[in-house]
Amino acid sequence: MMVGTPPIERPLYGAFSGRVLAVEPQSAQSRRRLVVATRDPASGRALKIRLNLPDELSDGESVRPAEIGEGSLIQFEARIMPPAAPLLPGGYNFARTAWFAGLAGSGTILKPVTVLEPAAGGEAPLARIRRGLAGHVREQVDEQAAGIAVALVTGDRGGITADDAQAMRDSGLAHLLAISGLHVTAVIGLIYVLSVRALALWPALALRVRLPMLASGLAALGGIGYTLLTGAQVPTVRSCIAALLVLGALALGREALSLRILAVAAFAVMLLWPEAVVGPSFQMSFAAVLAIVALSSCAPVRNFLGPREESPWMRGVRWFGMLMLTGLVIELALMPIALFHFHKAGLYGSLANLVAIPLTTFVIMPGVVLALAADVVSLGGPLWGLVGWTINAVLGLAHWVSAQPGAVTLVPGMGEAAFSLFLVGGFWLALLVGKVRLLGVVPCLVGFLVLYNQSPPDLLIAGDGRNVGVVERTAGRDAPRLLLLRNTRSDYVRDNFQENAGLRGETIYLPDHPGARCNADFCSITLQMQARAANVLLSRSRDIVPERELAAACDRADIVISDRWLPRACRPRWFKADRGTLSQTGGLSVDLSRGVVRNVAQGQGMHGWWHGRKGEMSLQDLIPPMPSSMSSDR
Asked: Which residues form the ComEC/Rec2-related protein domain (predicted)?
């Protein structure tokens, strides 16, 4: 509550002036993203807003003046919207993210920007270094690998194409694009090893100073510098804190990887960014490290990796087998979190990571650091060639894995009950010792059974009521199909509906479906369920409809869904979800066979980023009040 920023109450449109706080290039999307400090024209309230600045408008007019930078005073015309709540239950909550990031709204610049005052003193030093490094890296590697190379050096992912980003997500390699533990560890580890080896060549120093302590200090400085250079995002800072703790343990001669270090790092993050706990980044990174610590500390693994008299070839086989087992355990630990937040998980992610993680840790990241150092004397060319080739190999692996049948598993939105079972089982397996830890498998299996028996909801209704998804379960078909009320061009809307329903494949435009009856104002479709059929009426336009005709249509329908306010005379047999209802509940996910309604409001709580209904609800909450003029048997 102390750091939260209340959103704007309604959309704002017009001319604004403001100071640019940050500039994020997104060359792959042909735009830049600006964070601007401005004021509400009506109330004068100070606002921090996020704006997309396209390179060109729809008519081809350029809106990309080169002098826009951090500190510039600009004048622009834009439409600014309040941060959006989740489109559907379980969806991405930008409103919550914006609340803690200090953003009161977001929008798009519609006309060319006028620079009223250039940045005083030019760019900030770190921003200038970051931009210079990004340009240098782009010149050293080929165009296909440049986006990922720049992301690894500066944290700027704007140059990664949409196809490459999607392939990395579907193959389970998306974590390689976010600067986190893997990258920070590679940089710090390289500096530590090189420092120890180089300082050991100086006998006078080696005999008087503990080299691990001195090397830890140099590696810590390198890790902090890399964190600042890549923008000091929360995952990077979190990884840097954990790495500094490991370096401290090495300097003190203590065990480098333990549950105590993990607990201290988690406490530090929760102290500084408590909201991170509910996010997938925090959960997945700490779950992965917890799985590694738990696996490496169990007796069978210690015995398997213990020293013994054997050939180097056999030792390599043992370590390779341990690498595969570790990848599998991490994938199993992360899969429930990925299914809960994103409704999908990659089946082949562990196999892809067995190749991609070693390449990133031991080739790409050290190659980037050494190439940048070698560029001081213009000798980095061969190293940049190796880096570019390796990045292209990882991209090729990502595209190949993502194209395989069954590469991505989609499930309907996982409820909190199943997720809690996986959490209880995972913590039990990780934190307890001895044979009793195996009992943690039981809640995991129960959670898997709950997840396996989940079926797609019958209806998905966006919070604005305009976008509606109908799941058709036709006898004789292998899988249900998703029908969309509107033929939207937005990949964001379509992907949200597909992920929430747990369905892949092409969506079908509802008016084109042979079972739908549509006119300019409404569509009607009958859903076949086990016990009976349900007649659903969906509005398509906002034109005036005579109330008597609307009431008659509602009488014939079991369910009515609309993006407008419907009169009390509209009383369907089961329930209606109109604009008034949806403004309180947010998006809905309706399972008619079980009589269960999930809504966005249930996951928001008593927080400032949400202004609708605060509590639980059921189908009875959607049933409209009976008009006094209607008989009681209705």
From this structure: 152-433
Nearest Cα neighbor of 174 from 79, 596, 182 is: 182
Phi–psi pair at 35, nearest 5 degrees: -110, 120
Residue 62 reports pLDDT greater than 80: no
Report pLDDT for 627. Answer: 44
Q: Specify burial of residue 612 (Cβ count, 10 A radius: 0-12, 13-18, 19+).
A: middle
CA distances from 441 to 288, 436, 583, 604 (A): 17, 10, 42, 31
Give the mean pLDDT of 458-463. 90
d(CA 87, CA 91): 6
| Secondary structure (DSSP) of 60-112 | S-B---TT--TT-EEEEEEEEEPPPPPSSTTS--HHHHHHHHT--EEEEE-S-
Task: Kindly indicate the confidence band of residue 491, based on its pLDDT and cuts at 50, 70 and 90.
Answer: confident
pLDDT at 37: 94
Q: Which residues pair with 74 in a beta bridge?
A: 18, 115
Query: Distance between CA atoms of 433 and 566, rounded to whole angstroms?
Result: 60
E-assigned strand segments in 462-595: 468-472, 481-484, 508-509, 517-518, 522-528, 533-539, 559-561, 575-577, 588-591
**Closest by Cα among 67, 51, 55, 52 to 27:** 55
Quick check: 72 and 59 in contact, CB under 8 A? no
Q: Are 114 and 75 in contact (CB under 8 A)?
A: yes
Q: In angstroms, rounded to a whole number, what is the distance separating the alpha carbons of residues 530 and 185?
A: 55
CA 54 to each of CA 19, 73, 77, 112: distance values in angstroms, whole numbers, following the listed order:
18, 18, 13, 10
CA distance 210 to 214: 7
- Sign of the Cα torsion 403, 404, 405, 407 reads negative
How distant is the alpha carbon of residue 45 from its chain centre? 31
Tell me the C-alpha distance between 409 and 411, whole Å.
Answer: 7
Rg (CA), the chain: 28
Span 540-565, average pLDDT: 88
- Residue type present at position 170: D
